[in-house]
Amino acid sequence: MYYKKITFKKFLYLILILCLVFTGFSTYIRLHSPPNTKKVKCTPSSVSANTIIEDLQKNSPNKQHPRLLIKSQDFKRIKAQLNNDKNLMRWYKSLENESNKIILEPTVKYELPDGLRLLEVSQRVLNRIIILSLMYRLNGDEKYAERAWAELSTVSNNRKFPNWNPKHFLDTAEMTTAVAIGYDWLYDYLSFDQKKILREAIINKGLNPALKVYQGTANNNQISNYWKDIENNWNTVSNAGIALGALAIADESTKMEKLTGEIIGSSIASIKKSVAQYAPDGGLAEGPGYWNYATIYLTYFLSSLDSALGSDYCLSEMKGLKDTGYYPIYVEGPAGTFNVGDGSSQPIMNTPQLFWLSQKYKKHEFSDFSLRGNSPLNLIWYRSDRREVSKLQELPLDKSFVRNNTSLMTMRSSWNKDAIFIGLHGGDNQASHGDLDIGSFVLDALGVRWAIELGSDNYNLPGYFDMSSQRWNYYRKRSEGQNTLVINPGLGPDQNIKGKVNIEKIFSSPTQAYSVINMTNAYKNNAILIKRGMALVCSRSAVILQDELQLKGSSKVYWFMHSTADIEISNDKKTAILTNGNKRVFAHISSPKEGEFSIMTATPLATSPHPNGQLQNGGIKKLSIVLNAVNKTKISVSFIPDINNNRELPKEWPNPGKLDTWGKAHILTN
């Protein structure tokens, strides 16, 4: 009995010692192990209202303003650097001039010029408020704050502005942004009563209509509600604008915290849909103009989440955003942008968001591109201490954007203003603001755009945005209004309206580059196989555009290229001389043997719809090739700029091989 008792005690001691050893060892391992660096998966859609308000109170305590886009210390930094940086000095002088002009102008009026949109008024107010409020913050002269208040009080007045036109919600979103920035940047200047007026306007004219959309109770006849679930610029602009309104006034009361927390959380969940469209490489299907519109609002949103809450809840880590600054750089040629769909070919001069993107993602070439602009927002997102680690001139000459609803590639001979620049578009015919433009291309050389995209028509034309039928009655939206092929045209759409085309092959070397797309899906009613390749060859001094067609039956095929140049056709009709002033580009058909150039007007074919009201495209010619009774053919056209201005036709033309041989470097021409 005694022996057993002693053994039991020893057993208990042993267990105790083992527990102590295990605890000590576990503590040692925990203290000396490296931290867990595995990233937590981003789930911005799950951010709660309580989290948002808690983060606001931590990062912007005691109703701290400004908090939108910028904080008070940033204004101090800008003022300290104004006299030591030539870019800041230039932009400040422009800001001052614009501010003094606005002071002399009357305040806006509630106007819907087309019966639908207040958008122009909202955008004018936003521009004025940014300029005047920024000038006040940097200069301190209250005359700028007073003029800003005059604008803000006008749009907040229920008699003068009964609403911010939620039927066209972009108008509401942009006006909410304007009043939010005015409220935030002028917070220390505004009286208690003035702030109350602006808060009530933001809530009643901005946040409450948006809340109905988020909660699914909005009547679409009174409040446009589809933006919450779509993927284009409407989603980005509407969510961002409303979120800025909520961030500006979020901590003014407990009741307001509940409303604004829900609004901001809902906007984060919704905006993921449009942000996802930047994947995988930063391109957007809507084209460079709408890229600029959507991305400036996305930058308002992300920068304000950062400055007000200290976090953007992983939105900025979504795929494609870190590279999206390359999109405007590469889709712009020496003579304009590659303006797919409803876009304009005019260069985008003001891209202040690139300064923010440059800082966020350490891409200094974005800043270099944006330096030419003159936006007042340059002053807040530019950094004078930026490190010059890369230059635009050092970037690769070619780039593709491969998402199937974007799907384009641009190539150039250099980054100089007289360089050859070409772009080939695949894409998705159902893309927002898209055309039936699969296969369309642009061509710049000698500082001139020779192959142009016509761009938009009147947005108020009947059924203009009806992507199922009516849109495709208008010349500028049809394939015949693009630089692509038309096969067996009639009254119906001249490409598959649901056609989607990816880039099939790309290649880039110091001496040549090319892109090949398979366009069969765009012409599925007529085609067995259609491919188009575009190449920059002969040490990047000449361009080849080549189509290979295998059709289901004997067909009529049109090859079109729109141009503002004067065009002269050679006697054998194999060569065209395009002239703009004293500059020339030569075009030549090397295949098929029966191929001949002709000049057509930029008007609908006889077999096409002729709706009233569409633009007439005066002064635009259409270099054309028309082939009859085609079953299988290769259409190969080369372009050579008259670089030396010697007026003589080239003695040799590129003689390209078949597209399936283009996968091998340096054998593009036989």
Summary tags:
670 residues; alpha+beta; Glycosyltransferase; Beta-galactosidase, Chain A, domain 5; 2 domains; ten-stranded antiparallel β-sheet; 35% helix; 18% strand; disordered N terminus
Structure commentary:
The chain has about 675 residues and is of the alpha+beta class. The chain has two domains: about 50-395, Alpha/alpha barrel (Glycosyltransferase), CATH 1.50.10.100; about 400-660, Beta-galactosidase, Chain A, domain 5 (Distorted Sandwich), CATH 2.70.98.70. About 35% of the residues lie in helices and about 20% in strands. It is built from 15 helices and 19 strands. A hairpin with a 5-residue loop joins strand 15 (about 565-570) and strand 16. Helix 13 runs antiparallel to helix 14 (about 365-370).
Concise synopsis of the structure shown:
The protein is built from 15 helices and 19 strands. By secondary structure, the chain is an alpha+beta fold.
Question: Secondary-structure map with pairings?
Answer:
Elements: H1 2-32, H2 49-59, H3 72-81, H4 86-103, H5 119-139, H6 142-156, H7 169-185, H8 192-215, H9 233-249, H10 254-275, H11 288-309, H12 326-330, E1 332-333, E2 336-337, H13 353-361, H14 364-370, H15 378-381, E3 399-401, E4 408-412, E5 421-425, E6 427-428, E7 441-445, E8 448-451, E9 485-487, E10 500-501, E11 503-508, E12 513-518, E13 527-537, E14 542-563, E15 566-569, E16 575-580, E17 583-591, E18 597-601, E19 621-641
Helix pairs in contact: 2-10, 4-5, 5-6, 5-7, 6-7, 6-8, 7-8, 7-9, 8-9, 8-10, 9-10, 9-11, 13-14
